[in-house]
Write a structure and sequence with these properties.
The protein is α+β, with helices and mostly antiparallel strands. It contains three helices and twelve strands; from the N terminus they run H-H-H-E-E-E-E-E-E-E-E-E-E-E-E. Strands 1, 3, 6, 9, 10, 11 and 12 form a seven-stranded antiparallel β-sheet that branches. Strands 2, 4, 5, 7 and 8 form a five-stranded antiparallel β-sheet that branches.
């Protein structure tokens, strides 16, 4: 009886493992074309593949290929958009921007201001200036304004003509519509000090006032401070 040593069996087993072909579960374009060619070469000449069936298989492959190409295009578009956001964010450093917020910082001297937006014209527009505790320190009648965006300024004086302390104040703008006053959107300025980039290139904007913004928060970009010579107090 012939005997086989353990070493021989081990060599045969190792050779068998080394020559095993790795197969992928995904069917690529080359594999699909090879499969279709083999199918056409080996079909029964007496019962060839139906044209509709053949076209159906080609349509399925075209659909899959189209989806893969679309996904690649979307990935490229996303990368391009992220790069564009990065460049746009960096260019905002040092710029003055406007966001939808009534909070403003009154300096030691000089006026502050912002903008308000009216959906419809009003014969009487008013702005109330409140301090950090919510107490109204000044009420300004701005007068008549048409629909759209308009600027306003506050000289930093209270109802008695005295300069109030510097700090954070909130402007609330209301416009008369019929028999009642409705709130208007208020915009105020911020200075972008720095930009931070997170995962995926998402950018956050740090303001000089200590706030964190995104590009979606910005309503307007200004390269210079708005003209605040007129106090818009009518």
């Amino acid at each position: 009886m012939a005997t086989v040593s353990a070493a021989t069996l081990n060599d045969q087993y190792t050779l068998s493992q080394a020559t095993t072909t790795n197969h992928t579960k995904e069917l690529g374009q080359d594999e699909f074309l090879e499969l279709m060619t083999a199918q056409l070469e080996n079909q029964d000449p007496m019962a060839p593949m139906d044209n509709g069936e053949f076209l159906g298989q080609m349509a399925q492959f075209s659909t899959v290929s189209g989806i893969e190409a679309m996904q690649e295009s979307l990935d490229n578009l996303s990368a391009t958009y992220a790069t564009g956001q990065t460049l746009q964010s960096v260019q905002l450093v040092g710029q003055e921007v406007m966001i939808e917020s009534g909070y403003m910082e009154l300096p030691d001297s000089g006026p502050i201001g912002g903008s308000f937006e009216l959906d419809a014209g009003s014969g009487k527009v008013r702005v109330d200036i409140a301090d950090a505790s919510g107490t109204v320190v000044r009420q300004i009648d701005l007068g008549e304004y048409p629909a759209g965006r308009h600027d306003f300024t506050w000289n930093g004086l209270n109802e008695f003509g005295e300069r109030v302390s510097p700090g954070s104040y909130q402007a609330v703008v209301t416009a008369q519509q019929g028999e009642e006053f409705v709130s208007a959107s208020v915009l105020s300025t911020r200075i972008i000090d720095s930009v931070e980039f997170g995962a995926g290139g998402a950018a956050t904007l740090n303001t000089r006032q200590g706030e964190i913004l995104t590009l979606a928060d910005i309503r307007q970009i200004r390269s210079v401070a708005p003209d605040t010579a007129s106090e818009s107090e009518q």
